[in-house]
Amino acid sequence: MFLKVWQPKGAESTEIVGTVGGAAVLGGFGGMRSTTPSPYSFGEIIKAWSPFLILTVLVTIWTLKPFKAMFAHGGAMEQFVFTIAIPYLDQLIIKVAPVVANPTAMTAVFKFDPISAGGSAILLSAVISAFILKVSLKNTLETFGETLVSLKWPILSIGMVLAFAFVTNYSGMSTTLALVLAGTGAAFPFFSPFLGWLGVFLTGSDTSTNALFGSLQPTTAHQIGVNDTLLVAANTSGGVTGKMISPQSIAIACAATGLVGKESDLFRFTLKHSLIFATIIGVITLAQAYVFTGMLVH
After folding, report:
1. Tens digits of residue pLDDT in 137-158
2. What is the extent of the structural domain holding 168?
């Protein structure tokens, strides 16, 4: 809809360069404009979009509180959540002052929830989509296998990052770093987003940077007397600004757009924008920490 009222510079060219779905397409930098109606019916369009619609509906259901409550302690489906206390670790590490006010034992419990986990919603949506689109069982399994093969290194990478996050948390590394960073005092809220920014640059994942620095941010917040939710949110928001300079993201973008070999050019171009956005978030975080405190959840 937006491109119906705006076109980037150079889009004024009206040369017909080809067809998409039977509709004539006008050439021009930055976009394509159809001059004839699509030959597809409304039902066919909905069917093509059905995987995304199903995914949206299922993920939304999985995030609803009533659904989550069924798998919580005392819920109707509690028996489908399996927990295993890690021997020689669970309740054996004690957090003490100045990290916490009172000595607190750290739990180390492996939780396996095959139904209520978010990934289960995605898997179920894929199965339903394959049925609606009439994809054969053979093609479905082949696609699933190809996906696993293509994701083998990202899966290993994310697993190692999460493992490292557990090591830093249980060894005290993250709390030690938090105490050091607390030395920046009142200025830390400004630098808080840059931790998330750095984490995504190194790992390529906002989830991973939250795992790495998720416990560090609230610990530092308690030390300097600011809202811990704010700094955790700043970590996530700062991580988003680092996504555009992540080597993994740049490699994927160049491969998808036919710019293989231009990764360094893209990095130099996006770096300044990434730093600008991270700085803006830092300023906003600083303002919310000390000036606009009423905007925060207490």
Report:
1. 999 999 999 988 887 877 787 7
2. 160-297
> What are the φ and ψ backbone dihedral angles of 30, each rounded to 5 degrees?
90, 0
For the chain, the domain total comes to: 1
Contacts of 223 (CB under 8 A, 6+ apart): 98, 178, 179, 182
Q: Phi/psi class of residue 10: alpha, beta or left (left: φ > 0; alpha: ψ in -120 to 50)?
A: left
Q: CB neighbours of 231 closer than 8 A, spacing ≥ 6?
A: 188, 189, 192, 217, 218, 220, 221, 285
Q: What is the mean pLDDT of residues 228-237?
A: 93
**Contact of 52 with 96, CB cutoff 8 Å:** no
Pairing assessment for the beta strands 82-85 and 93-95 based on DSSP bridges: unpaired
Whether 220 and 176 have beta carbons less than 8 Å apart is answered as: no
Q: Is position 108 within any domain? A: no
Q: Does 221 fall in a domain?
A: yes
Q: Which residues pair with 111 in a beta bridge?
A: 83
Predicted structure pTM score: 0.64
- CA–CA dist 22, 37 (Å, integer): 9
5 within some domain: no
Residue 11, domain member (yes or no):
no
For residues 212 and 203, the answer to whether their CB atoms sit within 8 Å is yes
